[in-house]
Structure formats: structure tokens, C-alpha cells
Write a structure and sequence with these properties.
There is one protein chain. By secondary structure, the protein is of the alpha+beta class. It folds into four domains: 140 residues, Resolvase, N-terminal catalytic domain (Rossmann fold), CATH 3.40.50; 144 residues, Putative Large Serine Recombinase, Chain B, Domain 2 (Hect, E3 ligase catalytic domain fold, Alpha-Beta Complex); 123 residues, no CATH class; 69 residues. It is 41% helix and 16% strand. Strands 2-1-3-4-5 form a five-stranded mixed sheet, sandwiched between helices. It has a four-stranded mixed sheet with strand order 12-18-19-20. Strand 6 and strand 7 form a beta hairpin. The chain is elongated.
């Protein structure tokens, strides 16, 4: 900004003329209710117009510090205020000017500490233009006046009352199932007509459905799902929001690399928002002064069913919850779970069975016997191929009693929509063209001498690395499209037809079996979902 000087000021020749480095502090928050009198533009206009009337010497520099949409009840949630404080400590600013005390503080304790300790410690001038008017350079004792203290108390009470009113409004909306978050969960979006209502975002919703399908029916682990999504070049929820132009951020945003993780997959699998239930209040702010968020107990959540269209059917969702609660760990290098992972238990100690390979065979043993004590339980060993054959026979008997409709024998289709995969492939090919063009321009600039050899090689290496990654993603997407085209021509058959079980699939186990208990000596107890246990003997 331009320099502001008051050449008409007279000095007594004894006191050195001060040079003021001014910081204009402007703040607007939601608690102001959108009042025009408190707008950023209005505050700036008032400060610039009144500033020359309050300075006794040269104003060498004027900086602006604006906190838009920030509450004044705490300092650590106001980045511009923190920057102002840092500039004062560095000596860059020695005069702070604000419209009134409520712009700088809504917390009487912070106000007192700042005016009575910080300002004198760093020899800084503080000016409040409106009532209570104060200038700590001309009248240092004003900070201890009753008027300033009462104003600080009233400002804090206003913030408290506003906080209570806002929380009461939010609570009413939550109870009615109205969405009050700033950003909709991944797979959903806010309705343009009603920001408290959620609609399905079909592009992201298809990814959500795919995650559930891979986890429930194809037996993929959470980390395996994350790796596959990353291989296909699908952006994670944070990257997707930014890709759509949303100004999304959270405390960990700076660490987000746009890739999926097992933790992200887990949060999606557990989110009841995907079956049409509005779930809010998982976290809460400690108080109107302390804005840190803490997790709340599930009994304190606001849960309202059928507030929006479901992305995942309730049956698939419940199966995912059941599998999540089971012990379904897998080796880091594996992406899919073993067929019986999470289903096998020792019939005596009721602990999960552990899986081991010996030569060309795979065996299951009681985990208590293997890992804790040889006397606490017995081995309960069974070979995997024998187990699979026995379960196949048990299921064959069970399925003979089921009335399988033609719909259950229809060919399965891949969960990832063909059009979406082709869309992703098109996006990646455009990225490939963009990076190739940038590489070509870089080469031309180097030949023309506009960039040095060092800069050229550094940029070239970085661009080639990014281009290689894009080419890998394109190759995987092309393979996915080819598989989907092949499926459309020769559809994959169900694991059973006309009541005859062709082969075992994990999806079938999830649908029919609750647990399989292995007895010492080879007996199996197969407990079906919603039925009594069926006892079979190993052959």
C-alpha cells in the first residue's frame, strides 16, 4: 500500500519521531450474521480512512491481516492473527489497528493477556477506532480501564450466546436428519436446491460399490483393495474432492498424497451413510473457546435412517460388517484373502484357526495350540483341500433344499462400471498427452538456451517419472477394459446352477455360512446364517 505521512505534525525536538509499521487487522466470522457493517470491504474502508487521523509520525508501511470466516474466541484458529503476532515479534509491525475490540477478541482472557502483557513487551502500539476507543501509545493506562474490561466480557458473552444458538440449531437439524457438514461423504453430494439434503454422486458411488463387492464377494483384503484402486489411478476421497474444485482440507491434508490406504477403505466399509442412514455427531468441539475436536461415544451420535438414497444394499453392508469383525489378516504382499479366512474356528477353545503351508499342502491348526500353549488345547489340524471338499459336500446338501430362482443363476457382472473405466482411461490419456507436450516444450527451451542444462535435466527426470506412472496406469486400465469386454462376450457363470454346486467361492461362503468349527479328529460343524448348525464328518 501507499505510504501515509502527516507532515503537519509538530514535535518538541526531545522525543524521537516514531516510524510506524502498521498492521491492519480485519476479521469476519459467521457469528456476525453477514452484517454489511462488519464486512471485510467495510472494515478496510474505515481503517484506511481513519488511519491518518491517529498517527503522530510517519507511517512507513501498511500491511493487511484478514481472517475471513474465523471466530475471535481463540487465537490459534486465526492464521492471519498468528501471522500478525509473528510479524510483531520480528519487528516488522509495531502498530496494530483494528475497527473495535470485538474484531480482535471474543475472549476476555486472551484480550487481557494480549493488551496487558504482549503489547508492552514488544513495545507495540494498539489502536481501536470505535468504542471503546483506545490508543496504547497516547494513553497506555487505557488497557486497565473498566470500560475495556466490560467490553471484553460483553464480547465474550456474545460469542457464548451465539455458540449456544448455533449448537441448538445444529442439534435440531441433526435430529431431523438434515446434513450440516461442510462436505458430503465420498460417494454423495449436496443437493443444489437444498444444501441439507444428500444425493448420490454416481461417479464416486460406483467406486464405493466396487469396494464393497471386492471385500464381500471377491475376498480382497482392505490393503489389497487400496493397491488395486491406486493401480487403476482412481483418486482417493481427498484428491477426488479437490479434483472437483472443492476447497477441501483437514488437519492431515498436507500429508495426503492422493493414494488410497487400508484405513480409508476401512472407514468406507463401516460408514452407514452408504445405506441411506444419516450419521452425524461422531465428533464435537470441546467448547466455544477451545475448538479442538474430540470423538464422541456411539450412543451420542445422531442416526436417522432413510434420509437419502442408499449406495449399497443393506444385506451387502451387513456382510461387510460381519467380515470386518472377523480375523481376516493376510500377508502384506497378498491382495486377496484365503477362501476360509475369518470362517474357521476351533470347536473346543473357539479361537480362530491359523493357516500354514507344509511342502505342497496347506493346513489349518488351532491358534491356541500353535501360538500359546500345547496343553491349553489340541492341534485340531485339517488339510485345506480336504476341508474344501467337505464344505463343498455340506453346501451341496444344503443347496438341494433351496429354491433357486432364475435370477440367482444370472451371470455376474464386474462391479466397476464399463463407462467409468473408459472415462478414467480417457482422463489418463489426456494427462499423458499433456506431459508429453510439456516435455517437448522443455526440450525446445533447452535447445534455445532459455533453460540451463542442470534445470533441463532435473525437470526432464521429474516429468519422465510422472509420465512413466501415467503409462502404467493406462496399461492397467486398458487391461481392465479388455476384461470387461471379454466378460460381456463370455459371461462368468455362477458357482452353482440348477441346484448343483460347481465350485466354492468366497461370496457364497459369506452369503450362506456363519462359521465353520473344526473338531479334533476331523469333524466339522458348519453353522449357516439363520439356520441351525449342520454336522458333517471329514472323509
Amino acid at each position: 500500500m501507499a505510504r501515509i505521512r502527516r507532515s503537519s505534525t509538530e514535535w518538541d525536538g526531545v522525543r524521537q519521531k516514531p516510524v510506524w509499521y502498521v498492521g491492519l487487522y480485519i476479521r469476519l466470522s459467521r457469528e456476525d450474521g453477514g452484517e454489511e457493517s462488519e464486512s471485510i470491504t467495510n472494515q478496510r474502508k474505515i481503517l484506511l480512512e481513519q488511519l491518518p487521523n491517529y498517527l503522530e509520525g510517519d507511517c512507513d508501511r501498511v500491511e493487511e491481516y484478514i481472517d475471513d470466516g474465523r471466530t475471535g474466541t481463540s487465537d490459534d484458529t486465526r492464521p492471519a492473527f498468528l501471522r500478525l503476532v509473528a510479524d510483531v515479534k520480528r519487528g516488522k509491525i509495531n502498530c496494530i489497528v483494528t475497527k473495535n475490540l470485538s474484531r480482535a477478541f471474543r475472549n476476555s482472557a486472551n484480550q487481557g493477556k494480549f493488551l496487558e502483557e504482549f503489547i508492552p513487551l514488544y513495545h507495540t502500539r494498539f489502536i481501536s477506532l470505535y468504542e471503546p476507543h483506545m490508543d496504547t501509545y497516547l494513553n497506555p493506562e487505557v488497557v486497565h480501564s473498566l470500560e475495556v474490561s466490560i467490553t471484553g466480557f460483553l464480547n465474550e458473552q456474545y460469542a457464548y450466546k451465539t455458540s449456544v444458538d448455533v449448537r441448538r440449531t445444529f442439534e435440531t437439524k441433526r435430529k431431523k436428519g438434515e446434513f450440516i457438514g461442510a462436505f458430503a461423504p465420498y460417494g454423495l453430494r449436496k443437493s443444489p436446491e437444498n444444501r441439507n439434503r444428500l444425493l448420490i454422486d454416481e461417479e464416486a458411488a460406483q467406486v464405493v460399490r466396487t469396494i464393497f463387492h471386492w471385500f464381500v464377494h471377491e475376498g480382497m483384503s482392505k490393503n489389497g483393495i487400496a493397491k488395486r484402486l491406486n493401480t487403476l489411478g482412481i483418486p482417493n476421497p481427498t484428491a477426488y474432492k479437490r479434483q472437483k474444485g472443492l476447497l477441501y482440507c483437514n488437519p492431515q491434508s498436507h500429508q495426503n498424497d492422493g493414494l488410497w490406504s487400508g484405513k480409508t477403505i476401512c472407514s468406507i466399509l463401516l460408514n452407514e451413510m452408504y445405506i441411506g442412514t444419516m450419521v452425524q455427531g461422531r465428533q464435537k468441539v470441546i467448547s466455544y473457546k477451545v475448538h479442538d475436536r474430540i470423538a464422541t461415544q456411539e450412543k451420542d451420535w445422531y442416526m436417522v435412517p432413510q434420509t437419502h438414497d442408499a449406495i449399497v444394499d443393506p444385506d451387502t453392508f451387513q456382510k461387510a460388517q460381519m467380515l470386518h469383525r472377523r480375523d481376516t489378516r493376510t500377508a502384506p504382499e497378498k491382495t486377496t484373502l484365503p477362501l476360509f479366512s475369518g470362517f474357521l474356528y476351533c470347536a473346543d477353545c473357539k479361537k480362530a484357526m491359523t493357516r500354514k503351508r507344509a511342502k505342497q499342502f496347506v493346513y489349518y491348526h488351532c491358534s491356541t495350540y500353535e501360538r500359546k500353549s500345547k496343553t491349553a488345547c489340541t492341534r485340531h489340524t485339517i488339510r485345506e483341500d480336504v476341508l474344501e471338499q467337505a464344505v463343498w459336500k455340506v453346501l451341496q446338501v444344503q443347496l438341494a433344499h433351496l429354491d433357486l430362482s432364475p435370477a440367482e443363476e444370472k451371470p455376474q457382472t464386474l462391479p466397476m462400471a464399463h463407462t467409468q473405466t473408459e472415462h478414467l482411461l480417457s482422463v489418463q490419456k489426456k494427462e499423458q498427452e499433456k506431459y508429453t507436450a510439456v516435455l517437448d516444450r522443455l526440450y525446445v527451451d533447452w535447445c534455445a538456451g532459455e533453460v540451463s542444462q542442470t534445470v533441463y535435466e532435473r525437470r526432464k527426470a521429474k516429468l519422465e517419472g510422472q509420465l512413466a506412472h501415467i503409462q502404467q496406469v493406462i496399461a492397467h486400465l486398458e487391461q481392465e477394459v479388455a476384461e470387461q469386454n471379454q466378460t460381456a462376450v463370455t459371461p462368468q457363470k455362477c458357482c452353482f446352477q440348477n441346484g448343483t454346486l460347481c465350485h466354492l467361492e468366497r461370496g457364497l461362503l459369506v452369503a450362506l455360512i456363519h462359521a465353520i468349527e473344526v473338531h479334533e479328529g476331523g469333524g466339522l460343524t458348519v453353522q449357516f446364517n439363520g439356520t441351525d448348525p449342520f454336522l458333517g464328518n471329514r472323509e
